[in-house]
Design a protein that fits this description.
Blueprint lengths: L8 E5 L4 H12 L3 E6 L2 H13 L4 E5 L5 H15 L4 E4 L14 H29 L2 E6 L12 H21 L4 E8 L13 H11 L7 H12 L9 E4 L8
Parallel strand pairs: 1-2, 1-4, 2-3, 4-5, 5-6, 6-7
Helix pairs in contact: 1-2, 1-7, 3-4, 4-5
Organism: Sphingomonas naphthae
InterPro entries: KR_dom (IPR057326), NAD(P)-bd_dom_sf (IPR036291), Sc_DH/Rdtase_CS (IPR020904), SDR_fam (IPR002347)
Protein name: SDR family NAD(P)-dependent oxidoreductase
Amino acid sequence: MTTSLAGRVALVTGASSGIGAAAALALAEAGARVAMSARRGDRLAALVARIEAAGGEALAITSDVADEASATGAVEATIAHFGRIDILVNSAGIIQAGGIEGTNLDEYRRVMDVNLMGTVYSCRAAIPAMKAQGFGDIINISSQAGRKSASVFNAYSASKHALNSMSDAMRQEVGQSGIRVCVLMPGATSTDVADGMSDPAMRDMMKAHVTKDGAVSPAEIAAGVVFVAALPPHVNVDLFSIRPTIDTSA
């Protein structure tokens, strides 16, 4: 293991797959003790075993970030177990297709609840502990959809635009307390994010998009997470865009 993050404690939401799982593994490899939250506890348990087999320390927390009490509880459980929280990676996210006309409002609300409010709940719970210790890193996983909109992904685009704005305002709010806030915006990344989409045709389209030649791997996004967290304390990378080299439109 490297030691660039030795002594630090991280909580990664949405850690059961994709970018969240890769971030948890990368943070552990960099020396951090890692708590991981998600709804799929069996996957978290497998990650804990993998991290511990490599000599690291990890904690699995079954949690739904869209539920305020559950999201807050994950932060509290991290602090109770490890005694502190230095890094919060908000990676939990979902996508659904559709515009406004005829939209499924339950799906729209769920996207906003997970992608935006889940991050708000986790940040709100973590900030007091970070302020008390005078240091912290909050890294919110957004998307290229946060810089441009798509009519067929209205809820997703809206949630990521809102996440970006919320994060920048929060950076201004907490920076004087030594807390850094970064919005990390991946382009096409090979994850299973499309699996939860209810529209079969759009699900197939999204799967093709995230598995196309040149798509970024979750591990490559995770390397960006470690890079941001390992920077000198007075440096705040507030916006980090990571896109496939061979497809600049992704």
